[in-house]
Amino acid sequence: MKYLVLTRRTPQFRDDLLGDHYAFLDGLRRAGHLECAGPFTDRSGGAYLLIANSLDEAKHRALADPLHVQGCSNLEILEWDAR
Hints:
Elements: E1 2-9, H1 18-30, E2 34-39, E3 45-51, H2 55-62, H3 66-69, E4 73-80
Antiparallel strand pairs: 1-3, 1-4, 2-3
Domain YCII-related: 1-80
Protein name: YCII-related domain-containing protein
Family: Belongs to the YciI family.
């Protein structure tokens, strides 16, 4: 299944954690769990498309994003019937 992860920056957003965030995404990509990712052009956040067996698995992966763990972003995780 595919899961759309929408990330929105919080007022506590820290640019110095972007390297950790990108490394996290690279790890998901290497493991075959990430189809695509990118920031919104207005710099309010971004989105990425996870591949997982269940919503719980997708949440487990997405909630480990360093930006979320550090309170720098809020996540919305949606099961997506993308074609």
